[in-house]
Structure formats: structure tokens, C-alpha cells
Amino acid sequence: MKSFRPVLLAVFLVLAFYFVTTYMSGPSGPSWITRPAHVELTEAAGPANYDAEEQNNISVYKKALPSVVNITATAVTFDFFYGAVPQQGMGSGFVIDSEGHILTNFHVVEGARQVEVTTSDKKKYKAQSVGTDRSRDLAGIQIPHKAVPQAEIGDSKSLVVGQKVYAIGNPFGLSGTMTRGIISSIRSLKGQRGYIDEAIQTDAAINPGNSGGPLLNARGQVVGINTMILTGGVEQSAGIGFAIPINTAKAVLDDLVHLGRVRRPEIGIRTIPIGPELANELGLAADSGLLIVEVVAGSAADRAGLRAGTERAYLGNTPILIGGDLLVEIEGQAVQDQQDLSHVMQKHRSGDAVTVTIYRGKKRMDVKVVLGESRGVA
User: Fold this and answer.
1) Residue 18 in this model has a pLDDT that exceeds 80
2) Among this protein's residues, is 211 annotated catalytic?
């Protein structure tokens, strides 16, 4: 009998442990666990009250969203093993008129064989390209549906650093996304395809898929077209995004939609930049500007009577012609290098009459020039 006592004691202890842990603890764990039939919540007394800032955010979103579209562009790439392979890219855009025209970035639809637009109400339409402007990274496309609400277009001329802005688009394929920030800076920017004058820098989150979408002011008006981000090697927002000012787009929209291309203005000259040292060496009347070394025959400059150099000289090892007019201003804006000249040209169209200020010898002159259409020169 004594030999069974340890066994009986062990069985007793096991049964006691099972009873305590199974029955005395309740069916689901510790004794403090409760399972009421109805959970009582502390609910809000009434509907949410939005503060003034939230109300404005909501107002901007509701106003702008119906005009914002998602764009899926399908291009064909060649794979060594599989041959022609469809490749899709996504971006954004916004409706600009009652004819179904949509403004977006050139790089969103570049090389696309097929373009599909999805509106905010989830309807899909095949779109056709109507015009592109590669250097400004702008493109116009059109859908057959004419009833999509159009965006309200603002003015980018008076934008200031610190002003609140909103971006609406399709980041990473997430349609109808709005982010908010401020204008961080307004600066000239060298893009992948050309120069953006007075580009809008913002800390509003802009990511892949936002390209071509609107940048809005606090009244829901489009003031820019989101175009690129500074990533530091990672394709996501780093708090530095850029938008093309809407006035840049407005200046070329008629050409873009009606002609399918932009008539880029030109004067028709070839020049070299002049600094104080070279100006002194050549005995010029101003210490900076663009010295005209060639006037293209039949160009706007030729018709206006601007003169090129006729005396051969060398700039380092490069032969040049000196003695021509020294261009110093266009429409009262100083022109010291090719970049300045490019900035001025971006503000005008073919056919515009501009006042060009030159020095001919020591004489300062104003010359009226009717800009021609670009043929690959200034």
C-alpha cells in the first residue's frame, strides 16, 4: 500500500491543478475577464464639428476632385526573349474645358500606344493625344465624354512662399488622394526635358502617379501642374516636389490644343555671352549682354535690322565675328546669357512684338522685333 501512496498523491495533484486552472479561472482565462452580452460605448454627443481649416480642406477637395482624372498609358517595349511587351505607366491630369480636353505631363503619355482615363466617378474612357510640348513637359489629351466637370484655372503670377497649396492625384495608383503643404520656394529649374521658369517648389507630398495632376490654392483653383520630385535616389516624396506654373501652360494651350504643337518664338540670332573682362577687351559700351555673331537670313532679327559681327577674332581657340550689336535687354528685362534669353522667349509666342535694347557701337537703341517661329536657334 505504501508503494501506491506516491502515485495517488501525484494523481491528486494533477487533478487539483486541472480543476483550478480549468474551472476556477473561468472558460477563457483569468478571473478578471468578463463577457457582457452588450458592450457599452461612450459615443459622441452629435455629428463632428470641423474647424475652419478642416472645412477649407474639405471644400477644396470636393470642388477639385470631379475634374481630376487618373491616366494609364500603355507603351510597348521590346524584350529579347518575349518580343514586344506592353508596359503600363500611371499619372494624373485634370479637365480644362467642356470639350473633354485634359492637361497632363508629357512624360506621363510619352511613347504611349494607348491612353485610358478614369474619372472620379470610376468611369473609363479611351483618350487621344491632341498635342505635346516636350520642353515644358506638357501634353493635351481628349476623351469623348463632354460632361466631366472642368477645373477652375487660377493665376500663378502672384504666388508667394508660405502660401498653402494642395495636390490631388493618383500616387502609387491610389486614386483621389489629396495632400497639403505650402509653397517652399519659386525657382528656375532644369528638368529632364527642358527648363522650367519660376517652378513652384512645395512640401506637399508628391509621389509617382501624381505627375500631371493639379496643384491647387486654398480656393481650389489650379496654380500648377505637378511634374517631378527630388528623391535622393528613392522614388518617393522627400518633401521637395515641383510643379509647372499654370501660367506657363496657359500661354501655350491654344497652340497645344488647336495645332497639336507649340509655336516656339525665336529672334533668329546666334550669340556669345559677354562679361566685364571681355567687354573691356573688345571696347564695348556695356559690360554684359549677348554679342550677336550671326543673324539668320529671313529671320525676325534680319527683318528688324539687327546686325551681326563682320570682323574675325578668336575667343580662346574658337573663331568668332565681332563688331555686331550687343543685346542687353528684351522688354526691359536684362539679358546676360542664353539662359536669360530662353526665359524671355518662354514668356512670349510667335508673332509677338517685343522691344529689344541693343548697343550699336556706343549708341544705345531700342528695336521692335516681331518674333518668328523657332527653327532651332534663339
Assistant:
1) no
2) yes
Q: Catalytic site residue 137?
A: yes
How does pLDDT run across 179-226, given as a tens digit for each residue? 999 999 998 877 666 678 889 999 998 888 899 999 999 999 999 999
Cα 211 to Cα 99, 176, 246: the distances in Å are: 22, 13, 14
From 92, 101, 137, 184, the catalytic residue: 137
Q: Does domain 63-142 have CATH number 2.40.10.10?
A: yes
| Catalytic site residue from 92, 101, 107, 340 | 107
Written as nine digits, the cell of 62 is 470636393
Query: CATH topology of 63-142 equal to that of 265-373?
Result: no
Mean pLDDT, the chain, rounded, equals 86
Mean local confidence (pLDDT), 123-141? 93
User: Based on the number of CB atoms within 10 Å of its own CB, is 135 exposed (0-12), middle (13-18) or buried (19 or more)?
Assistant: middle
Catalytic residue (choose from 67, 184, 211, 237):
211
At 237 the pLDDT is: 53
Percent of the chain with pLDDT over 70: 87
CATH, range 164-258: 2.40.10.10
For residue 63, with 0-12 CB atoms within 10 Å meaning exposed, 13-18 middle and 19 or more buried, which class applies? middle
Q: What is the CATH number of domain 265-373?
A: 2.30.42.10
